């Protein structure tokens, strides 16, 4: 789907917001692609991100899925708005085993208040083969930039 | 609800599995309580776990909710089984602002193959007041200890 | 949890809205209890509501869970607002076998725009024993009474 | 995605199971397409399926989404298995206004025990224009044909 951003400066604004998330630094996540309504994030594997069998931890997968959808939605906001996650649902399809994780999110529906996104997560092996390892469906709410209140306000 | 563990040594086995998750070390998570079918995890706040407004990141909340439910389910498994997350859904209710997060999970239904858990997450302020900031509903699948395969096998 | 209704006439308004749903007539659903932030619905079993094994169909369970949460949320709205379902997630715990289904919903968080509810569904046998057969977690959005637009506006 | 059915007689078996659901008769649902791993269902609008504003009721949408996914999964089962819904999550994107509803489901991952499906729901107007009004993500479990037990067993 093709979306028209309401803020021509969406890319800089979106990337700055992403860089402001301490937890994304902790995970080593990078925003590898951003177009209006679409966002791709990547994380390289380290033991610090593993579960007990040496795969990417489900919490890492969930974080990447949630944040990729959040910034796909954020890219369509007017310049005086930010957003928060209302809820998301994640299905794990395969063990996330590989050198890196890629989450690709797209906006399914962008309303004035709520935006719904889908995020598909792939585990990329050393030979660049990709396994579709998880998918998420998420809802985000647009809020005022000075928002400090409830995520379900 | 009162559950009877199938493995009398469930506590040691559950805690050992939790300690084997590199990502839980990264988050600084601790297992503060464990009884059959119930699990409580805690994480102290650091900037490394924050989103852009200085609250606990949604991905941290999701991780804690998922893992607390996973070990509530794990505590009821026979000694020759482990489990994997099939899926979970998280609703964020309030900004998770505070000195620490506590996730309290309980088993709603324990079947032979699948277990369903609910996990409630609280943000604890410096004065020990608690805010109910998120809730999750999750499904886990029991698998063989040597399991290396699909999470939806 | 104790909630204070914003509209003293909430009960009549809530029950009238429920009676306006043709599909609830089709299911034979009744609103058996309503207090601020809480709603209980019931449906008696008929073959017209069954799946292929003669149990209540998952779609009936989902409908009852969704609507009970919707009216638990509706009961707390001001008189000039109505609401729509944003999303819900349902876990089926046991086959829903019995003479009737009861869904009990409670508001977990009531914001200005969004309300989050939990709904537990019980299958009631002829001897009045209850089996906890499903649970749902749902989000509702308050909208203007004249609302005809997007559910994620 | 292309799937190979494990039972060459999958189509007849799948359609017979669908016809055995009393609730699908009540809704007037028809299976308009079936190929291995894909299923499309349709329902025509009547007031008996409406919510209070005259649109298709969310419970009808949920039922169609769940069942379309269930039979997409069912089509890939061996002949001696059936399946049950473990859980599903539905996001409502737009009011479901129109002459009929179409739900198109596809299998995302087919494991030995669990199958994960996505179902997209469209409201079709009198002029055949389609509005993408809902999407669901669901998990199904394969069980023995004689299964009468827990949906999360």
TrEMBL record, chains A, B, C, D:
Its EC number is 3.1.2.20. Keywords: Hydrolase. It catalyses: a long-chain fatty acyl-CoA + H2O = a long-chain fatty acid + CoA + H(+); a fatty acyl-CoA + H2O = a fatty acid + CoA + H(+); a medium-chain fatty acyl-CoA + H2O = a medium-chain fatty acid + CoA + H(+). The keyword Hydrolase applies. It comes from the Bacteria. Residues 53-123 form the Thioesterase domain. It is an enzyme of class 3 (hydrolase). Pfam families: 4HBT. Transmembrane segments: none annotated. GO terms for molecular function: fatty acyl-CoA hydrolase activity. Belongs to the YigI thioesterase family. PANTHER family: 1,4-DIHYDROXY-2-NAPHTHOYL-COA THIOESTERASE 1, MEDIUM_LONG-CHAIN ACYL-COA THIOESTERASE YIGI. This is Medium/long-chain acyl-CoA thioesterase YigI.
């Amino acid at each position: 789907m093709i979306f028209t951003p309401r803020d021509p400066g969406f890319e800089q604004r979106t990337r700055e917001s992403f860089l402001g998330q301490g937890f994304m630094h902790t995970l080593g996540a990078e925003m590898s692609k951003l177009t209006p309504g679409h966002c791709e994030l990547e994380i390289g594997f380290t033991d610090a991100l593993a579960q007990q069998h040496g795969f990417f931890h489900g919490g890492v997968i969930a974080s990447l899925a949630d944040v990729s959808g959040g910034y796909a939605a954020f890219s369509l906001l007017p310049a005086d708005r930010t957003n928060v996650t209302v809820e998301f649902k994640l299905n794990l399809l395969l063990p996330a085993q590989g050198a890196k994780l890629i989450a690709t999110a797209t906006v399914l529906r962008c309303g004035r208040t709520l935006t719904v996104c889908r995020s598909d997560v792939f585990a990329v092996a050393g030979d660049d083969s990709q396994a579709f390892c998880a998918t998420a469906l998420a809802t985000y709410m647009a809020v005022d930039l000075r928002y400090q209140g409830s995520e379900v306000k």
